[in-house]
Amino acid sequence: MAFNFEYPYVDPTQYNADWLLKKMKEVLANMESMDEWRAEYEEAYEDYKKIVEDIENGRFPDSITEAFRRWMSNNAISIVGEMVKSVFFGISDEGYFVAYIPDGWEDIIFNTTYYDIMLTAHPEVDYGHLVLTY
């Protein structure tokens, strides 16, 4: 009784050409709508695919670069502030001011401005600042 709900008077053991034709038209319509959808979004897909390939090859679109710059300018100070909380400062046995830096920070160079050496020569210059470069 496979098609009994659509054609109650049809022998289910016989093929019903009308039913088959109706189902084939539905399948074709679905395929056409998928082709239309694919045609509509294929250009956008290719654009996104090119952007991803560019990023993988180190070429960033200007919009991403600018967004990253804005994000860094808004967040860099707080990020560095959190990083510096992992550094411990103290006085060495020889009496020098030291910063104890975590092992994984080889890329960050801790230095000073060197202006503290010429304190009397240039009193208007800020001195004694710790400088982090990377």
Low-confidence stretches: none
Q: What strand order characterises the main sheet?
A: 1-2
Q: What distance separates the N and C termini?
A: 77 Å
Mean pLDDT: 77
* Strand percent estimate: 5-15%
- Main beta sheet, described? 2 strands, antiparallel
The Cα radius of gyration reads 35 Å
Structural class estimated from helices and strands? alpha+beta
Textual characterization of the structure:
By secondary structure, the chain is α+β, with helices and mostly antiparallel strands. Helix content is 47%, strand content 12%. It has 2 helices and 4 strands, in the order ααββββ. A two-stranded antiparallel ribbon has the order 1-2. The chain has a two-stranded antiparallel sheet with strand order 3-4. The longest helix has 40 residues, at 17-56. It is rod-shaped. The mean pLDDT is 77.
Task: Outline the secondary-structure elements.
Blueprint: H1 17-56, H2 62-84, E1 88-91, E2 97-100, E3 109-112, E4 130-133
Antiparallel strand pairs: 1-2, 3-4
In short:
This protein has helices spanning 17-56, 62-84; strands at 88-91, 97-100, 109-112, 130-133.
Throw out a few tags for this protein.
about 130 residues; alpha+beta; two-stranded antiparallel sheet; two-stranded antiparallel ribbon; about 10% strand; rod-shaped
